[in-house]
Amino acid sequence: MLLAPEPIVDFSKRDTLRAMIRRSFFTGLLIAFCWLVPASLAAEDSPVTYQHLVQHDPNYSIYILSIDLTDPRVAVHVCRAGAPPKGDQHWLTTLLPPSEIAQREGYQIAINGDFFDADKTRDIEGKNTGYVKGKAAAPVGPAMTDGKLWCSHATTRPIVEVDNKDHVTITDFEPDSMSSSVRQIIGGNPVIVRDGKKLPLKSRFALARHPRTAVGISKDGAKLILLVVDGRQPDISIGMTLSELADQMLHAGCYNAINLDGGGSTVMVAYDPKLHHLRILNSPSDGKERSVADALCVEVHAPMPDLSK
Question: How far apart are CA 49 and CA 230, in angstroms?
Answer without folding.
Answer: 19
